[in-house]
Amino acid sequence: MPPKKIKTSTKTTNRKTKKPLIKRIRLGRLLLVLILLSSIVYGSYIVISEIYSWGSFKYAQYQEAHPSKPQKPPIPPQFTDKRFENYTNILFIGIDDKPVEGIAESGRYADALMLVSMDHTNGEIRFLSLPRTIKTSIDGRKDPEYLSFTYYYGGAPLTVNTVSQLLNIPITQYVALDRKSIAKFVDTIGGINLYVENNMDYEDPVSGTSVHLTQGYQHLTGDMSQQYLIFRNDDLGDIGRIQRQQKFAKALFEKMMSLETIPTLPTILDIWENNIDTNINILDISNLINLLDTLSTTEIKIKMLPGNLTPTGDWVPDNARVEQEINDMFPPVPEDTAEE
Fold this sequence. Notes:
- Residues 110-257 form the Cell envelope-related transcriptional attenuator domain.
- InterPro entries: LytR/CpsA/Psr_CW_biosynth (IPR050922), LytR_CpsA_psr (IPR004474).
- Belongs to the LytR/CpsA/Psr (LCP) family.
- This is LytR family transcriptional regulator.
- Strand 8 (200-204) and strand 9 form a beta hairpin.
- The protein has one domain: Aminopeptidase.
- Helix 3 (179-188) runs antiparallel to helix 6.
- By secondary structure, the protein is α+β, with helices and mostly antiparallel strands.
- Residues 31-52 and 100-106 have low confidence and may be disordered.
- The protein has helices at residues 10-65, 150-167, 179-188, 222-230, 237-256, 265-275, 285-295, 319-329, 335-338, and strands at residues 87-95, 110-119, 125-130, 135-136, 145-146, 173-178, 192-196, 200-204, 209-213, 216-220, 277-278, 300-304, 307-309, 315-317.
- A 6-stranded mixed sheet has the order 11-6-1-2-3-12.
């Protein structure tokens, strides 16, 4: 009787052969992905390093070709308090474009006011908008007047001191710029993306004001940014304008902190030196690095000074809510710490 042939299962053999093959294919794909990711990461590192190196080189060139103008002195602290030691408070002042004839720099009005406070302990940044129609005491004036008049009467120093007294916080630095300077900044960094809430149409032949923006997502140029910032001809008036200024400030901040703005640094510095009234010397490289390092580590928070709008358009601060807002921004120091 012939021996029985033992049948081998081709399916079993194929499975045994396929498993190592599949494992090798998967391993090969994994290695390929890892190599690809490593190349992307390394390439990105090289690109970023090159961009920063190029930016530093252009900055050095700019410093050599454009010696810094004499720096305006810091404003002496209005008072000292331990709770404010770890903060840098800067008042940003948006001034109108047309100076009053014969009064030069101090003949302009403060058209927008925003306090920027940077906490050096955690990198947090807070913006506090102040309506220009707040009536308050101003040094040298008999009766309370609008906050916007302070720049007219005494330039940035008087505006800073008035806001400091109003909020009861020390402020020593300021940046005052008009809409044309903002437009130059926006054009230099390639514009910003922003959602325009409503159609905006307004014409004033006397002042030369022309606003025409369409509702929806827009890539704003410098000129379009000016239109967005000055528009107040809706139901909310100045309050709606302040809300748009806050929204714009956040979008501009985010764009300024992006890598794509690095090649524009020399032009930005030129605008800063020649178009802005400030006592911050941005050409001090150590200060610049510290400032950028602080600004790029956190999300900004923007609020408006608490208060109520009167029928005449005045903004009356709610003192209790203002005090609470200031305590939130600058938490009181425990008594035992303050006495050290």
